[in-house]
Amino acid sequence: MKQWLYVAVAFGALASSAYAHTPLAASTPAAGSTVAAPVKELVLEFGGEVRLTAVALADSTGSKKAVGEIPTAVAAKFTLPVRDELAPGDYVATWRAVGADTHVISGEIHFKVAAPTPR
Ligand SMILES: [Cu+2]
Protein backbone atom coordinates (compact mmCIF):
# COMPACT_ATOMS: atom_id res chain seq x y z
CA MET A 1 0.00 0.00 0.00
CA LYS A 2 2.74 2.42 0.98
CA GLN A 3 4.71 1.69 -2.21
CA TRP A 4 1.70 2.66 -4.30
CA LEU A 5 1.55 5.99 -2.54
CA TYR A 6 5.24 6.67 -3.31
CA VAL A 7 4.71 5.83 -6.97
CA ALA A 8 1.70 8.13 -7.17
CA VAL A 9 3.65 10.98 -5.56
CA ALA A 10 6.61 10.47 -7.90
CA PHE A 11 4.36 10.50 -10.97
CA GLY A 12 2.56 13.56 -9.69
CA ALA A 13 5.83 15.46 -9.22
CA LEU A 14 7.02 14.55 -12.72
CA ALA A 15 3.75 15.58 -14.31
CA SER A 16 3.54 18.91 -12.51
CA SER A 17 7.13 19.91 -13.33
CA ALA A 18 6.61 18.99 -17.00
CA TYR A 19 3.46 21.07 -17.25
CA ALA A 20 4.98 24.00 -15.35
CA HIS A 21 7.65 24.64 -17.98
CA THR A 22 6.93 27.48 -20.33
CA PRO A 23 7.06 25.97 -23.83
CA LEU A 24 8.08 27.61 -27.06
CA ALA A 25 4.68 27.81 -28.75
CA ALA A 26 5.70 28.97 -32.21
CA SER A 27 8.46 30.61 -34.17
CA THR A 28 9.05 32.39 -37.46
CA PRO A 29 10.68 30.81 -39.36
CA ALA A 30 8.93 27.76 -37.96
CA ALA A 31 10.99 24.75 -36.90
CA GLY A 32 11.60 22.47 -39.87
CA SER A 33 10.26 24.98 -42.36
CA THR A 34 11.72 26.25 -45.61
CA VAL A 35 11.34 29.98 -46.08
CA ALA A 36 12.15 32.14 -49.09
CA ALA A 37 14.95 34.69 -48.76
CA PRO A 38 15.21 37.34 -47.49
CA VAL A 39 14.77 36.50 -43.81
CA LYS A 40 14.58 39.81 -41.98
CA GLU A 41 13.47 38.76 -38.52
CA LEU A 42 13.30 35.93 -36.06
CA VAL A 43 10.13 35.67 -33.97
CA LEU A 44 9.87 33.51 -30.86
CA GLU A 45 6.48 32.99 -29.20
CA PHE A 46 6.29 31.29 -25.82
CA GLY A 47 3.34 29.75 -24.00
CA GLY A 48 3.74 32.35 -21.26
CA GLU A 49 5.93 35.25 -20.28
CA VAL A 50 9.66 34.53 -20.12
CA ARG A 51 12.90 36.43 -19.90
CA LEU A 52 14.86 35.69 -23.05
CA THR A 53 18.54 35.39 -22.13
CA ALA A 54 20.30 34.19 -25.29
CA VAL A 55 19.63 33.79 -29.00
CA ALA A 56 22.18 32.71 -31.58
CA LEU A 57 21.79 32.08 -35.27
CA ALA A 58 24.28 30.04 -37.28
CA ASP A 59 24.52 28.52 -40.72
CA SER A 60 25.39 24.88 -41.43
CA THR A 61 29.13 25.60 -41.14
CA GLY A 62 28.62 27.05 -37.66
CA SER A 63 29.24 30.60 -38.84
CA LYS A 64 27.31 32.99 -36.60
CA LYS A 65 24.81 35.42 -38.09
CA ALA A 66 24.04 38.66 -36.32
CA VAL A 67 20.65 39.17 -34.71
CA GLY A 68 19.41 42.24 -32.86
CA GLU A 69 19.79 42.74 -29.14
CA ILE A 70 17.57 40.70 -26.87
CA PRO A 71 14.86 42.79 -25.20
CA THR A 72 15.32 42.93 -21.43
CA ALA A 73 11.58 43.00 -20.70
CA VAL A 74 9.69 39.86 -19.74
CA ALA A 75 7.34 38.95 -22.58
CA ALA A 76 5.65 36.07 -24.37
CA LYS A 77 6.68 37.17 -27.87
CA PHE A 78 10.05 38.41 -29.11
CA THR A 79 10.89 39.77 -32.54
CA LEU A 80 14.61 40.05 -33.26
CA PRO A 81 15.90 41.64 -36.45
CA VAL A 82 18.29 39.47 -38.45
CA ARG A 83 21.14 41.83 -39.30
CA ASP A 84 23.13 39.57 -41.62
CA GLU A 85 21.88 38.48 -45.00
CA LEU A 86 21.00 34.80 -44.90
CA ALA A 87 22.15 33.08 -48.07
CA PRO A 88 20.15 30.04 -49.19
CA GLY A 89 21.03 27.08 -46.96
CA ASP A 90 20.40 25.48 -43.59
CA TYR A 91 20.29 27.46 -40.35
CA VAL A 92 19.82 26.80 -36.68
CA ALA A 93 18.59 29.33 -34.15
CA THR A 94 19.38 28.41 -30.55
CA TRP A 95 17.61 30.15 -27.69
CA ARG A 96 17.62 30.16 -23.93
CA ALA A 97 15.11 31.73 -21.58
CA VAL A 98 14.02 31.77 -17.96
CA GLY A 99 10.38 30.76 -17.58
CA ALA A 100 7.82 32.05 -15.12
CA ASP A 101 8.59 29.08 -12.84
CA THR A 102 12.30 30.20 -12.86
CA HIS A 103 13.36 27.11 -14.83
CA VAL A 104 15.88 27.67 -17.58
CA ILE A 105 14.46 26.46 -20.87
CA SER A 106 16.26 26.25 -24.18
CA GLY A 107 15.88 24.87 -27.64
CA GLU A 108 16.93 24.84 -31.27
CA ILE A 109 14.96 25.82 -34.35
CA HIS A 110 16.23 24.34 -37.59
CA PHE A 111 15.06 25.93 -40.82
CA LYS A 112 16.11 26.26 -44.42
CA VAL A 113 16.35 29.40 -46.49
CA ALA A 114 15.49 28.89 -50.14
CA ALA A 115 16.51 31.17 -52.98
CA PRO A 116 14.10 34.06 -53.52
CA THR A 117 11.11 33.23 -55.70
CA PRO A 118 11.78 34.55 -59.22
CA ARG A 119 9.26 37.13 -60.42
CU1 LIG B 1 9.67 24.54 -15.39
Main beta sheet strand tally, sense and closure: 7 strands, mixed
Helix residue percentage: 10-25%
Specify the structural class: alpha+beta
The count of DSSP E runs of length 2 or more, i.e. the number of strands, is 7
Percentage of residues in strands = over 45%
CATH class: Mainly Beta
Bound molecules: copper (II) ion
- Globally, the shape reads elongated
| Number of separate domains | 1
CATH topology: Immunoglobulin-like
Task: Quickly give the CATH architecture.
Answer: Sandwich
Counting DSSP H or I runs of 4 or more residues, the number of helices is 1
N-to-C span? 72 Å
Estimate the mean pLDDT confidence: 87
Q: Give Rg in angstroms.
A: 18 Å
Order of helices and strands: HEEEEEEE
Question: Layout of SSEs?
Answer:
Blueprint: H1 2-20, E1 24-28, E2 34-36, E3 41-59, E4 64-65, E5 75-81, E6 89-98, E7 104-114
Parallel strand pairs: 2-7
Antiparallel strand pairs: 1-3, 3-4, 3-5, 3-6, 6-7
The structure holds copper (II) ion.
Copper (II) ion binds at residues 17, 20-21, 99, 101, 103.
